[in-house]
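User: My instructor asked us to take a sequence, write out its structure as tokens, and then describe one feature of it. I'm not sure where to start. Here is the sequence I was given:
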Amino acid sequence: MLRQVVEEKLELWWSPEQVVLWLKGTYGDDQEMYVSHETIYLSLFIQGKGSLRRELTDCLRTGRAYRRPKVKKAPSGKGQIVDPVMISERPAEVEDRAVPGHWEGDLLKGLRQTAIGTLVERHSRYPMLFPLPEGNTAPAVRTALAETVQRLPEHLWKSLTWDQGKEMAQHAQFKIDTGVQVYFCDPKSPWRRGSNENTNGLLRQYFPKGTDMSLLTQADLDKAAHSLNGRPRQTLDGRTPSEKLVEVLQ
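Assistant: Let's start with the prediction itself. The structure tokens for your sequence are:
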């Protein structure tokens, strides 16, 4: 039964660490339903008798059963933002994630520079996605962002942190439209949007490089977001982003 459960979760693109968190939360101290994440990785790697199915390796985020050292790449310049409010001016409550309502955002690029918008709430790690069928120009992004803000209660939208991409050139008008303050990261500092960067990496499982993002509908994006929001997170003590957001809403 343990093997069957592990395979089912891996097929949902859960990481071995997320599988272990879920097993602990569901089965407690039942030793028959315990396995370490390293054992899962090893089973995928050896792919021998009694190990997990070979094709499950493709379900891992990286598509491999071993991990390489991370090498950070500096992003290229994206143009100038007029009168940006820098991340250094962001309230202290944003940094410790104790107060909900502070978001990180970015674009996820695809074929021929098509893109979708990605947002992650820092307190709950809850992602929201929005399509950009008309392109990723500043007016298109501002309009789509403003519409996305309306999907959750007003008290869950206090601030938004973005990099200095030219798609946010109309940030001042966005603040007027929604009341949401936009803060900008320093150049070459994607780690200041760590939750969003991690989520964008996970989203490549659903939307690989080369995907024509302009063809994706809101329903397509909601399906992917629902899947991500159902994965247990170690940073949330084994709870899912959906469960954490429900706590906030209640």
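For the description part of your assignment, you could build on this observation: The longest strand covers residues 102-109. Try explaining in your own words what that tells you about the chain.
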